[in-house]
Amino acid sequence: MPLTAQDWLTKIKALPLVRGVRIMNVCGGHERSITMAGLRAALPSNIELIPGPGCPVCVCPEEDVYLAMQLALHAGVILVAFGDMLRVPVNVPKSEPRSLEQAKAAGADIRPVSSPQEAVRIARENPERQVVFFVAGFETTTAPVAAMLLEGIPDNLFLLLSCRLTWPAVAMLLDSETPGFDALVAPGHVATVMGPEEWSFVVEQHHMPAAVAGFTPLSLLAAIYSVLRQLLEGKQFLDNCYPEVVRPGGNATAQKQLKQALDVVDANWRGIGIIPVSGFALNAQFAAHDARRQFTGYETEGRKRVGEMPPGCDCARVVLGKIYPNECKLFGTACTPRTPVGPCMVSDEGACRIWRASGVKAPSAI
User: Fold this and answer.
1) Cα separation of 165 and 148, whole Å?
2) What DSSP string describes 50-99?
3) 343 in the same domain as 205
4) Any idea what DSSP says for residue 248?
5) pTM above the 0.85 mark?
6) How many angstroms separate the CA atoms of 312 and 49, rounded?
7) Residues 79 and 167 occupy one common structural domain
8) Are residues 337 and 285 in the same domain?
9) Which of 31, 55, 95, 140 is most buried, with most CB under 10 Å away?
């Protein structure tokens, strides 16, 4: 019979761990499942689960959000974006609109969408208007955007692309002197598209245990057990604990479409800085649909100097797994899901929002 979640917990508790182990879970979806299922409380106290850089909304550069707002407010475009992006705050005086949501309230034509097809539909329904699709996401979000481009899009649809690859941020942490974790649970949805082999560098270059996991407590516990066994036995390998979905090689069609439509470039991550080969950009074939090329005069270099996290916000350190969400002094006080100061309190994949929604208290209340 297949093992249950309780079976995996029993096996984990039986492991003869002699020291504390820190396991990074990269994906925001993993963090949501871990927190909502209460896995931290169920695991032995010497096993720490560290939220990692798996929230694309959280790392979307502030200057990109600001540019989207300027286009919506001053360029006369219809601005469409995934719903999470509408509430991400930018660093401007409180007298000015501080998010796409507030820009919409100020009169800008901003519309939430849930898929690239909705952006195409809006452009076709408004042929006399210019439509800008502001899209942030990781590989699983970017692949459908690439497919949309290759299928053909209306001449009046432009993309403000702020998409990122997942693995370079983990590579950056592992290349640092203090990565802060002993094992990795890799995101199953990314591995479904890009293939589990994308995470083999964790084992091969850094000799660290790694396992790909799905989004159920069962799959996550199996992955946690796998990396703990690897540590104890001193035999590191990349384990696929999501075999029902993740296949060797990933989705070849999606990978081909990504390569055909987009280039991989160095990219800025909010509060972190430039990470090499970590971003997507429209390639030469689709340059005519690049909003940055079409709408000039709205970007300034000076914006990048204020594009970090807001004062007092520790989202960058949360994203990098350096602190837990409730160790930020703004958590649950000045910064709440209703009044987010930083981007980690906005998205359903943001660790701060996940922790707050699950009832974790502010530091002063602990």
Assistant:
1) 19
2) EE-S--HHHHS-HHHHHHHHHHHHHS--EEEEEGGGGG---SS-TTS--S
3) no
4) T
5) yes
6) 25
7) yes
8) no
9) 55
